[in-house]
Fold this protein.
Amino acid sequence: MRGEERPVTVRVRDGLRQEVLNANLAIPQVGLATLTWGNVSGVDREAGVFVIKPSGVPYEDLALGHLVTVRLSDGKVVDGDLRPSTDTETHRCLYLAFPSIGGVTHTHSTHAVAFAQAHRDIPVLGTTHADTFNGPIPVTPDLTPQQCATDYEYNTGQVIVDLLDSDDRKAIEVPAALVANHGPFTWGVSARKSLEHAIICEAVADIALHTLSLSPTTPPPPHLLHRHYTRKHGPDAYYGNPERAASM
């Protein structure tokens, strides 16, 4: 949080706070976090704010009233009695850089963190990966001493932005990145979707580690990967039932 202004209640769109709470509560349920190692946020761009988990509150204690609302323009808390997640500025940086993003999830899930600590992209080794990510999940360069010394959390977001060349299209096609030596950040059109991408990111990291442990692999045929990505994404997508999804 920047500054010490007294929080002022701000109304966010209906359902956003509950969605953010549900997504945060799901993090330990799906095995993505130990202790309090994870957070989800959701943005209301019309109101110019985002809602995020408070810092250090155990998931089993987390309630709707604990969530913190932060102003997108300058990172000041505008609603909530607790400090927001220490990763708040990273979330804010991503929201400012990529207009397509409606939610952000950060975890320290085991297999994705292993790739981040090894400074390795999560490679596309099969169709499970290609169903969601149109390419490898990239890893950032190390932060510099200067980036760590000043505005560290914001700069953590900035290295992701730089990695994707500030290109919103890239953020849409591969909605995840690994911060070197740290862990995964994922995003999507909503808080719920960003969590879904975090679950898939961890799953494909796990599968990739198992695959690489068996033997070196040759890349899958690009036409196969393209088919799997485009049947779920883009104008020719035909996976699922949109009417049913909209009603859920």
Remarks:
- The beta strands are 38-44, 49-52, 68-71, 77-79, 103-107, 176-179, 183-188.
- Residues 16-235 form a domain with the L-fuculose-1-phosphate Aldolase fold (CATH 3.40.225.10).
